[in-house]
Specification:
The protein is an alpha/beta fold. It is 39% helix and 20% strand. The protein is globular, with a radius of gyration of 23 Å.
Length: 450
């Protein structure tokens, strides 16, 4: 990494990375599971629910997500040989050693054939359950793409193309998951149908704004309030209906006219023996970031864990807050650490390389050019940002000038959604590797005193 000349900038960069690391540690999936899972006196305690193990014929563990392997490792540590069998899906290079739970690595954010095979293994386990079976479900960020089971009449290619269209148009995760539920055999509560008559308890590590249970991993075991009609409205609004694969469009139109069964809604009998608990989220990470900022001598201001919108528009807000803190000491006096979290989107206009956090950071760097007292970090808590090896980036008032000296024009790279090569050239990428967790993104704005 190329350090800025200003030693205060070097210190802000080091502090920002340390605060981010503290936030990621707080959302460690193992810790989150260990807080809610234990065995006491022959009873399994799950998030405050006590279940006599002697009354269970089998205990199965299933799930999907980037953080699910670490969650499964914690479950194995607590439950050991009590687990009869298990199967989980995760992103490539995210597996960890497990002894009783089989892991399938597969494609994300676009599903692939390995994901379909892994989901098939999960469904094979559920085909063996009875009323005395307990199914422990572990879902985390990425679970929607990592649990593919194309609905009848659809192929994997149909789902892949639909996913690509949604990712490119700037749709929110809620909107993308609404579509995923209605093109799937397992999402939107349909996995709960498959698990009948077993008892089902789901533990969720949330990567979604506001922690809606029906949206995290597309709610495989939770009632779905969305409809086929919602999907058609969504596709019309984004002008994608004519571009959808024909089988996907046919299914949506059939569902909207009741020729295809809806996903299960609240009150459906398939949820009579299901429970769902959120055990970790973005707010948990923000609280840890605030504590670490205080420990490092900063005045913290936590904005929200629900920040969303176009990445470059959110960047403009962060830059304005930083400039205000520099000039008036508002909304927080220096040394300041402004903290926010959530998940932005990027409407692709070019064919460059990057991710939403890199785009946010570069857009902020353009607005902060010459502001030598400010450093901004934007990164994904899972350690990945778009189809790149970076978690995000750490930029400051010198980023744009350092880029210019190396032959990069920041505005041009923004226009092409091509933040990665510029930030790699300036040494401003943040590369952490896979963290094992996923509770959306984190932004930090550090402001030094005058």
């Amino acid at each position: 990494m190329t350090d800025p000349i200003d030693p205060r900038a070097r210190q802000r960069r080091a502090d920002a990375e340390a605060i981010f690391a503290a936030a990621v540690r707080a959302a460690d999936p193992r810790r989150c599971v260990e807080r809610v899972l234990s065995v006491q006196g022959g009873n399994l305690i799950i998030a405050g629910t006590s279940i006599p193990l002697a009354e269970r014929s089998r205990l199965l563990v299933i799930g999907a997500g980037k953080a699910t392997p670490a969650m499964a490792g914690a479950a194995e540590a607590v439950l050991g040989e009590r687990i009869a069998a298990g199967a989980i899906n995760t992103k490539y290079d995210h597996a960890v050693p497990l002894s009783r739970i089989r892991t399938t690595e597969c494609g994300h954010p676009v599903p692939d054939a390995e994901g379909v095979r892994g989901t098939g293994r999960i469904l094979d386990l559920l085909a063996q359950v009875d009323r005395d079976t307990l199914v422990l479900c572990l879902f985390s960020g990425g679970g929607s793409a990592l649990l593919p089971a194309p609905a009848e009449g659809l192929t994997l290619a149909d789902k892949q193309e639909t996913t690509r269209l949604l990712l490119a148009c700037g749709a929110t995760i809620d909107e993308i998951n609404t579509m995923r539920k209605h093109l799937s055999e397992v999402k939107g509560g349909q996995l709960a149908r498959r698990a009948q008559p077993a008892r089902v308890i789901s533990l969720l590590l949330s990567d979604v704004i506001g922690d809606p249970l029906d949206t995290i991993a597309s709610g495989p075991t939770h009632p779905d309030p969305t409809t086929f009609a919602d999907c058609l409205e969504l596709m019309t609004r984004y002008r994608l209906l004519e571009r959808l694969p024909a089988p996907a469009r046919t299914r949506l139109e059939a569902g909207a006219t009741s020729r295809v069964s809806e996903t299960p809604k609240p009150g459906d009998p398939c949820f009579a023996r299901t429970e769902t608990r959120v055990i970790g989220n973005n707010a948990l990470a923000l609280d840890a970031a605030r504590e670490e900022a205080v420990r490092r001598g900063y005045q913290p201001l936590v904005l929200s864990s629900r920040i969303q919108g176009e990445a470059r528009e959110v960047a403009a807000v962060y830059a304005a807050l930083a400039q205000e803190a520099c000039t008036t000491g508002q909304p927080v006096p220096a040394p300041a650490c402004i903290i926010g979290g959530g998940e932005t989107t990027v409407t692709l206009r070019g064919t460059g390389r990057g991710g939403r956090n890199q785009e946010l950071a570069l857009a902020a760097a353009v607005r902060l050019a010459g502001w030598g007292r400010v450093t901004l970090l934007s990164a994904g808590t899972d350690g990945t940002d778009g189809p790149t090896d970076a978690a995000g980036a750490v930029v400051d008032g010198s980023t744009v000038e350092r880029a210019r000296q190396r032959g990069f024009q920041a505005a041009d790279h923004l226009d092409r959604n091509d933040a990665y090569p510029l930030l790699a050239g300036t040494g401003d990428l943040l590369v952490t590797g896979a963290t094992g967790t996923n509770v959306m993104d984190l932004q930090l704005v550090l402001v030094s005193p005058a």
